Amino acid sequence: MARALGVRAADGSAAPAPRLSLLVPDSLMGATLVWSPDTGSYEVDPSRTGAPATGVRFIYYAIDPATKTPALPLNELGRIDLTDRSSGGSGLTLGVQVVNTAGSSDVTLADYTIEGSFVLSGDTRLQASAEGYVSDGTDRLDFDLTQEVELPAGSSTVSGTTHYVLSSGDVTVTLDTDGSFDLDTGRATAASLTLTVAKGPDSAAMHVTVAADGGLDGSITHGGSTVILIGGTTDQPTFTKPDGSAPSDQKVAALKDLFGAADGVAGFAVSVLGVFGGGA
Q1: Whole-prediction pTM
Q2: How many other CB atoms are there within 10 angstroms of residue 261's CB atom?
Q3: 233-248 confidence digits (pLDDT tens)
Q4: Other residues' Cβ atoms within 10 Å of the Cβ of residue 226
Q5: CA 199 – CA 177 distance, rounded (Å)
Q6: Which long-range contacts link 91-94 to residues 24+ away (Cβ below 8 Å)?
Q7: Distance of alpha carbon 25 from alpha carbon 27, whole angstroms
Q8: What is d(CA 21, CA 30) in angstroms, rounded to the nearest whole number?
Q9: Is 189 buried (19+), middle (13-18) or exposed (0-12) by CB count in 10 A?
Q10: pLDDT at 72
Q11: Residues 141, 166 contacting (CB under 8 angstroms)
Q12: pLDDT tens sequence across 130-173
């Protein structure tokens, strides 16, 4: 999102002012869309009722794993309601609710709100946030995601910050990042992240800074004490104990999984906030 925002501002083109119809076009307000095997796309079904008056409803189906489109014959599983809750100005608010209706009773699989605000004159700024939950019908993942990207007027450096919190049961994962991207060189100039995993009163955290050349400098703490030092590069991270000795291969594999966990949290945020351009 930082790259896209910066390129759009740097090329001198006029970015359109956000409008409510960017979320739900007026022509689709209150409409229900169903899959048409004939056209291979979603179409309005005027006989369907119950869609939100300020939004649009999509019926979703079992998917053919080969084509990634609804399998034939159609097997209707539920509905997705997208509701425009914007109040005007530069802010946009989208409500998302996914309900499985295929069982004996309806089951809500997702219910969250995404908000975005834009400043496209002078200092260019984009803020986005989302809060709510997703579920498989049994386990529930709550999330609270916020991010901001800014391009100062006359500058070629886009900066961004994120604060992502995911929780399920007594486990909470928090990812905080801060970084910048140079539009002239097309490269990140600096970045840092902190990933914290807490289960009840027990917690561990990974703190890492990334230099422009990809070099890493950081540590992993548990209960407030440093247990691992991080070095190397983003392609080949290294891990050592504070006394200089090397951890076991099994522990190194687990430590590398922490980097994967950070990517997973960021990827989840991108998928949720994608309506406003993706992750920072």
Answers
A1: 0.83
A2: 15
A3: 888 889 999 999 999 9
A4: 12
A5: 21
A6: 91/115, 91/116, 91/117, 92/18, 92/20, 92/22, 92/23, 92/116, 92/117, 92/118, 92/276, 94/23, 94/275
A7: 5
A8: 13
A9: middle
A10: 96
A11: yes
A12: 999 999 999 999 999 999 988 888 888 889 999 999 999 999 99
The residue ranges of every structural domain in the chain are 18-119
> How far is the C-alpha of 190 from the C-alpha of 118, rounded, in Å?
24
What's the CA gap between 124 and 8, in Å, rounded? 10
Residue showing tokens 């995911």: 166
Beta bridge partners of 206: 195, 220
Q: Look up tokens 């001198």; give the residue.
A: 12
Our measurement of the distance from residue 62's CA atom to the centroid of its chain's CA atoms, rounded to an integer in Å, reads 24
Q: Please report where in the chains the tokens 């005027």 appear, as a residue.
A: 46
Shortest CA distance to 219 belongs to which of 210, 230, 211?
Answer: 230
Residue 171 in tokens: 């486990």
